[in-house]
C-alpha cells in the first residue's frame, strides 16, 4: 500500500507542477547502457571510488575465486532476484553451470567486509543538485542466523531499521555519498563496521540501485505507519521538482520496457 501511495503521490505532484510523470525514467538516463539496454552493474562498478569498490567480474568457466564466500549476481536485477551465495568450492561447482545458462549474464562479486549493512537513499535538490533534498539511511538486519544472507524485501528474515542521525552526521554522510557520480535518485547498499566508520568513509559499496530505488525507511515497522506516510509527500514533491528540472538537451533513452522485461527473465 505504501508503494502504491508513493507512485500516486509522485504522479500527483507531477500533475501540479505540469511535468509528465513518465519522465521519471530519464532521471538516471545518463548512466543507462543504451547498447545493452540495462543499468549495468559492471558499468556502475567502474564509477565507484576505488576504496569503496568490491572486486567483481563476469561469471565464466575459466575463473575460480581465491576467497569465500562470493556472491553470484545477475548483471541487473531488482529486489535481489536471482542472487546466490557460494560459500566454498562445492557451492561454486554446483551453482556455476546453471547460472551460466541463464538468459541474463551473471557476475561474481567478493563478499564485502564489515559487520553492518546499510542502505542510503537520496533524491537530489532540484535547485542545487550538489545537495540532497531527501536523505535517509536504514540498517538492514537479518533474523535468520545466516552469516551471509541475501537481504531483500523477498527475504522474510530481512528487516530494516531507520537510523536517526544528527544534522552533523547527516552532513558527513552526504559528503561521502556525494563523491559518487551525480545520480539524481539512488539507493546505495554498503557494509561497514560501524556508523562512525561509515561516516568516515570506511565502507564498501555492495550495489547501487538506479532504476526504481525505494526508500527502505518505508519498510521499517518500528516507525508508526502515520509517520511513514508523512515521509512520502515531501519526498515525491522533491522528486517531481527534480523531474521538472531535467535539461531539455539531455539524450532521451527508452528505459522502462527494456528493464521491465529484463526483470522477468531473471529467476528468483
Automatic annotation (TrEMBL):
Location of the ATP-grasp domain: 40-234
InterPro entries recorded: ATP-grasp
Keywords from the named record: ATP-binding, Nucleotide-binding
Superkingdom in the source lineage: Bacteria
Species of origin: Thiolapillus brandeum
Protein name: ATP-grasp domain-containing protein
Protease among keywords: no
Molecular-function annotations in GO: ATP binding; metal ion binding
Keyword ATP-binding among UniProt keywords: yes
Classification of source organism: Bacteria, Pseudomonadati, Pseudomonadota, Gammaproteobacteria, Chromatiales
Amino acid at each position: 500500500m505504501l508503494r502504491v501511495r508513493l507512485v500516486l503521490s509522485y504522479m500527483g505532484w507531477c500533475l501540479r507542477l505540469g511535468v509528465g510523470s513518465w519522465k521519471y525514467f530519464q532521471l538516471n538516463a545518463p548512466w543507462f547502457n543504451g547498447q545493452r539496454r540495462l543499468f549495468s552493474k559492471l558499468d556502475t562498478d567502474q564509477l565507484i571510488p576505488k576504496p569503496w569498490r568490491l572486486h567483481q567480474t563476469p561469471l565464466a568457466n575459466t575463473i575460480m575465486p581465491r576467497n569465500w564466500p562470493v556472491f553470484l549476481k545477475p548483471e541487473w536485477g531488482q529486489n535481489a532476484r536471482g542472487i546466490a551465495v557460494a560459500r566454498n568450492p562445492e557451492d561454486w561447482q554446483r551453482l556455476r553451470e546453471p547460472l551460466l545458462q541463464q538468459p541474463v549474464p551473471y557476475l561474481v562479486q567478493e563478499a564485502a567486509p564489515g559487520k553492518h549493512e546499510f542502505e542510503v537513499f537520496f533524491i537530489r535538490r532540484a535547485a542545487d543538485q550538489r545537495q540532497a533534498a531527501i536523505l535517509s539511511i536504514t540498517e538492514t538486519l537479518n533474523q535468520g542466523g545466516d552469516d551471509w544472507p541475501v537481504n531483500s524485501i523477498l527475504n522474510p528474515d530481512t528487516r530494516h531499521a531507520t537510523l536517526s542521525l544528527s544534522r552533523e552526521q547527516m552532513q558527513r554522510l552526504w559528503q561521502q555519498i556525494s563523491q559518487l557520480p551525480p545520480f539524481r535518485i539512488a539507493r546505495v547498499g554498503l557494509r561497514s563496521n560501524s556508523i562512525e566508520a561509515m561516516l568516515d568513509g570506511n565502507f564498501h559499496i555492495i550495489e547501487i540501485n538506479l532504476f526504481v530505488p525505494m526508500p527502505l525507511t518505508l519498510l521499517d515497522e518500528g516507525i508508526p505507519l502515520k509517520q511513514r506516510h508523512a515521509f512520502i509527500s515531501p519526498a515525491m514533491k522533491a522528486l517531481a521538482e527534480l523531474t521538472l528540472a531535467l535539461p531539455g538537451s539531455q539524450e532521451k533513452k527508452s528505459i522502462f520496457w527494456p528493464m521491465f522485461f529484463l526483470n522477468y527473465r531473471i529467476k528468483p
